[in-house]
Structure formats: structure tokens, C-alpha cells
């Protein structure tokens, strides 16, 4: 049981969710459950990019501020951002004011618009890269996999920025392409049921 955190209800969870109070709800309600909503998928990729070099706690605490700053990550709107929007974002102390990351979000929004036109939806594209079980080790034992490497390479070829294999793997964990809850975690079985009942987009 050393790899778990015992929650206030007495049930075991992934150890990482006990390291900050705000992690518990995120872990129980979001992390690992399959997502096919394009806006949520795009938002998560953006936030993972902003996390690079920082902690997820920092980003999670600023998530609502990021949503307000980036029109709730509606990529059709963000793709139209110009210099005034960049200046506004760089002056917004509520978010992470990293010029390269802000520029990447705007660029990636434009690439997302292109992807929807080409593939039908972001979800249809991303779920093609759901890893086979045989490429995954024990839960939370790796930070990349063959599929995250392939997806990161494909995104780069399509012009997406600030998204490497590790960032993409974290995206896969969070959006349900991988069930990486600890074996003893109370959520693992629930997430697995959700994945089994989830209709993959095509």
C-alpha cells in the first residue's frame, strides 16, 4: 500500500493525489476518465504545454484563469488571436506569461481548426493513438510510450508546437487513453469500466 494515499473516506487512491488538497477532486472526477470533447482535449494539451518546467499544481490552480484568458479554449476563437491578444495575455498576471507557450497555444489552435477539417474532430484523431496494453508497464512506471512518441511526432509534422512525447503521455493519462491509476487505487476499476463503455470516435 506504499504507492497509495488513503483519502478522507478511508479508501486508497494514487499517492500523488495526496500531495495537495486540490488534487483529490481532480483525481477522483477527471484524471483518466475517457474524453471525446474537442474543447477539453485542446485545453488539456495547452495546459500540459504550460506545465512544462512547472508543477501541475501551479497550472491546476490557475486553470479557471487560463480558461477566462483563452476564451475557454475555444480553438476556433483562439486561432484568430492577433497582436493585441498576445499583449493582453502577456500582461495577465493570473496566468503563466511565457511568450513561447502563449504563441504555441495560438499556433496550435490554428492547427486544431485544420485537424477538424481534415479528420472530422480532434477526438477522432487522438484516439487513434490509444496505446496497446503490451506497450505499457505497471501503472505510473513510465513517462512515455511508443504511442506518445508517435503522436508527438505526428503533431510536430502537422505544425503543432511545444508538445513532446512526455507532454503527450501526460495528456493521454489525463484524457483516458491510458488508465494509469495505481492497481490499489479505488478509481482504477471505475476508470476501466468507463473505458470499456466508451465509444471510440471515428
From TrEMBL:
This is DNA-3-methyladenine glycosylase I. It holds the Pfam family Adenine_glyco. SUPFAM superfamilies: DNA-glycosylase. InterPro entries: Adenine_glyco, DNA-3mA_glycosylase, DNA_glycosylase. It comes from the Bacteria.
Amino acid at each position: 500500500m506504499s504507492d497509495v494515499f488513503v483519502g478522507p473516506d478511508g479508501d486508497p487512491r494514487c499517492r500523488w493525489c495526496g500531495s495537495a488538497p486540490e488534487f483529490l477532486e481532480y483525481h477522483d472526477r477527471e484524471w483518466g476518465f475517457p474524453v471525446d470533447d474537442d474543447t477539453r482535449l485542446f485545453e488539456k494539451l495547452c495546459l500540459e504545454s504550460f506545465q512544462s518546467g512547472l508543477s501541475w499544481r501551479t497550472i491546476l490552480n490557475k486553470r479557471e484563469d487560463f480558461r477566462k484568458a483563452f476564451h475557454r479554449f475555444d480553438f476556433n476563437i483562439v486561432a484568430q488571436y492577433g497582436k493585441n491578444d498576445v499583449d493582453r495575455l502577456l500582461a495577465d498576471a493570473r496566468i503563466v506569461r511565457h511568450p513561447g507557450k502563449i504563441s504555441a497555444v495560438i499556433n496550435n489552435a490554428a492547427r486544431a481548426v485544420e485537424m477538424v477539417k481534415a479528420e472530422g474532430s480532434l477526438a477522432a484523431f487522438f484516439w487513434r493513438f490509444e496505446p496497446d496494453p503490451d506497450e505499457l508497464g505497471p501503472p505510473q512506471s513510465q513517462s512515455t510510450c511508443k504511442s506518445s512518441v508517435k503522436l508527438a511526432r505526428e503533431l510536430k509534422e502537422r505544425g503543432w508546437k511545444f508538445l513532446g512525447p512526455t507532454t503527450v503521455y501526460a495528456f493521454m493519462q489525463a484524457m483516458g487513453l491510458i488508465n494509469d491509476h495505481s492497481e490499489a487505487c479505488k478509481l482504477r476499476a471505475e476508470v476501466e469500466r468507463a473505458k470499456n463503455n466508451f465509444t471510440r470516435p471515428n
